[in-house]
Design a protein that fits this description.
The protein is α+β, with helices and mostly antiparallel strands. The protein contains 15 helices and 34 strands. Among the domains are: about 1-365, Methylamine Dehydrogenase, Chain H (7 Propeller), CATH 2.130.10.10; about 375-415, no CATH class. A hairpin with a 5-residue loop joins strand 25 and strand 26 (about 305-310). It holds the Pfam family NOL10_2nd.
Length: about 675
């Protein structure tokens, strides 16, 4: 049994764990249960509660004794007896079931709507009758007062089949091109149908007239939602006499009061997937809506999320066991999931032992679902070399990161850093040795990191203690003993760099103070090396000397800042000279680059000119183009401006034009020379 918690709501997954194959013998199953601990610990609430491949619909009979489910492959229906906690019967069908309805209190009367336009009736013994409807059906509802079945589907008509007379009645003509779902109110028997155009039409079965229409597609579009395409109605459910919930194909759930055309609340699943099922939970005033990815439970008055569930496989249908906290789902997988949520209600009477079991688990909390997973961010995945797994089933997105299997995480970490365990082991050994050393009688030692800062804090503490004794005040806690600042004196990453420019400028008098501390450090290190006890701190100077020093601090501070700046400038000059020497010593070799075919080399000056032009304003660019002759601005008769542009010709076009000009000039010269020769010949003949 797996336990997950969201918003402090415990959800127990009763179908978690591996399932044994059907073809295994009882002897082999018992042997596997003895060997495998996971199989032995699993809870099989209902024996063989699964389908061969996929389960599509699941329902509970009105007496609560039978659970019926349909699935593939081959198309079949299975009935489970809750009193026996096992399967009662299984029947195979000719085609896949779209939906079905249990007409009686038990399993004795069932109607199946199948893919091939067939409507199949089953009684207690098995198949009873089979008929067809004119168009492909998508949903149907049963009207108890008149014994009529209302079928909706790929047609504008609603087909009526009377079970008392055994014949089709006049159909209802609607304005919709197609209808997806339908439902009948259990109080006043109002018939409602959801259309592909995103509308809900309500009909009165007594007069067979339409009494109202709701435009849900328009109401589902709010400021917070992003919708692609026209939303169609994918789910519909009545609650009492006045409330109705509508699910759209774009992932919104709208709660209506039948007396108003505006929805009371619009809840978005934020996945953009069609709503598959809507259920009402009356004890806590909750609405349970599900798409193919998630089951959400939320308050119908405020819209606040109560809890949610995300199964491993896509959801096809959701069924809430009446007057209990049990929830069942039909999935795109062989196993049908069973969840128990104690907050919603008690366990059904046929499995009342679940209450005792969950109480024991709450008293002795064990590992939850997320204990077997590791939370990693995108940066962690890149460091481990697993960024290519984003979007796969191995990673489950959650908040600003992902959940991944802890075993996969350990394997990837070992491959990324194979010596991490050895380093961790050495660090642990070092910590153990230091713990044992701490138990001995030791000298007062300064930390390995930031020794000068620690010495400064010790001196300040001594001064504060003397001052507090005089004033009779309480001593402040020491920073060296505070766990919050412990890492600053242990981790070398927190070491203060005294050679940095910022430190030298912000602390100009640190050189004078550091000299005193360095002397004390040397004395302490010598004492530690010799193994002797720590001597008393050297006495300070007289009070008049200290006062004279404090009076000269301001002058010394300005001089020290100037000195530090001069030193920094000298260091920068030395660094530049070293760089120049290195640049002179290095010989730059020319590099040659090959230009691709069809491209021409353009000088770097052109790119620099283009960059300068892009930085200029539009007005400056237009003036420049007017000077070049590529732009002509003129006034029109209306009073507006007219601008004509001349496109710049590429170098290929220019070369081509120049070649054409040369060719024309050559032809002209040839023609002139030919005409000149002819004229000379004509003159010679005349003479």
């Amino acid at each position: 049994m797996q336990v997950s918690s969201l918003n402090e709501v415990k959800i127990y997954s009763l179908s978690a764990g591996r399932s044994l194959p059907e073809w295994l013998s009882d002897r082999k199953k018992r042997a596997l249960q003895k060997k495998d601990v996971d199989i032995r610990r699993r809870i099989e609430l209902i024996q063989d509660f699964e389908m061969p491949t996929v389960s599509t619909k699941i329902k509970v009979s009105r007496d609560g004794q039978y659970i019926m489910a349909v699935g593939t492959y081959k198309p079949r229906v299975r009935c489970f007896d809750t009193y026996q906690l096992s399967q009662k019967f299984e029947r195979c069908l000719d085609s896949e079931v779209v939906t079905f309805e249990i007409l009686s209190d038990d399993y004795s009367k069932i109607v199946f709507l199948e893919c091939g336009r067939f409507v199949e009736f089953h009684s207690q013994h098995g198949h009873y009758y089979k008929t067809r409807i004119p168009k492909f059906g998508r949903d149907f509802s049963y009207h108890y007062p008149s014994c009529d079945l209302y079928f909706v589907g790929a047609s504008s008509e609603v087909y009526r089949l009377n079970l008392e007379q055994g014949r089709f009645l006049n159909s209802l003509q609607t304005e919709a091109s197609e209808s997806n779902v339908c439902d009948i109110n259990p109080v006043h028997f109002l018939f409602a149908m959801g259309t592909a155009e995103g509308k809900v039409e309500c009909w009165d079965p007594r007069t067979r007239n339409r009494v109202g229409m709701l435009d849900c597609a328009l109401s589902s579009v709010t400021a917070d939602t992003e919708i692609e395409g026209l939303p169609s109605i994918s789910a519909l459910k009545f609650d009492g006499a006045l409330n109705m919930a509508v699910g759209t194909s774009t992932g919104q759930v709208l709660l209506y009061d039948l007396r108003s055309s505006n929805p009371l609340i619009v809840k978005d699943h934020h996945y953009g997937l069609p709503i598959k099922s809507i259920q009402f939970q009356h004890q806590l005033d909750l609405i349970i809506s599900a798409d193919s990815r998630i089951v959400k439970m939320w308050n119908k008055d405020t819209g606040k999320i109560f809890t949610s569930m995300e199964p491993e496989h896509d959801i096809n249908d959701v069924c809430l066991y009446p007057n209990s906290g049990m929830l069942m789902t039909a999935n795109e997988a062989p196993k049908m999931n069973i969840y128990y949520i104690p907050v919603l209600g008690p366990a059904p009477k046929w499995c009342s032992f679940l209450d005792n079991l969950t109480e024991e688990l709450e008293e002795n909390p064990e590992s939850t679902v997320y204990d077997d997973y590791k939370f990693v961010t995108r940066k962690d995945l890149e460091n481990l070399g697993l960024a290519h797994l984003i979007g796969s089933s191995l990673l489950r997105a959650y908040m600003h990161g992902f959940f991944m299997d802890i075993r996969l995480y350990h394997k990837a970490k070992m491959m990324a850093n194979p010596f991490a365990y050895e380093e961790y082991r050495r660090e642990k050994i070092r910590q153990k040795i230091e713990e044992t050393r701490a138990q001995r009688v030791q000298l007062k030692k300064l930390p390995k990191v930031n020794k000068e800062l620690a010495l400064k804090l010790i001196e300040e503490e001594g001064e504060d203690q003397q001052f507090s004794k005089k004033r009779k005040q309480k001593n402040l806690p020491s920073l060296l003993k505070d766990d919050r600042f412990k890492v600053m004196f242990e981790n070398p990453d927190f070491q203060v760099d005294e050679q940095s420019e910022e430190f030298r400028l912000l602390n100009p008098l640190v050189s004078k103070i550091s000299e005193k501390r360095k002397r004390k450090l040397k004395i302490l290190e010598e004492l530690e090396a010799q193994g002797q006890e720590e001597e008393e701190e050297p006495e300070g100077k007289a009070s008049d000397a200290e006062s004279s020093e404090s009076s000269d601090d301001e002058k010394g501070w300005v001089e020290e800042v100037r000195k530090q700046r001069k030193l920094l400038r000298q260091e920068e000059k030395l660094k530049r000279q070293e760089r120049l020497k290195e640049d002179q010593q290095t010989l730059l070799k020319p590099q040659f680059f090959e230009i691709k075919e069809g491209e021409e080399f353009r000088s770097f000056k052109d790119s620099a000119k283009k960059q300068k032009l892009m930085k200029k304003t539009l007005e400056d660019r237009l003036k420049l183009e007017e000077k070049l002759g590529t732009l002509n601005v003129s006034d029109t008769t209306v009073g507006s401006k007219q601008a004509t542009f001349k496109l710049k010709k590429s170098e290929q076009q220019r070369k081509q034009q120049e070649a054409e000009k040369l060719h024309r000039q050559e032809r002209k010269t040839l023609r002139r020379s030919a005409s000149h020769l002819k004229s000379r010949r004509g003159r010679g003949r005349l003479f």
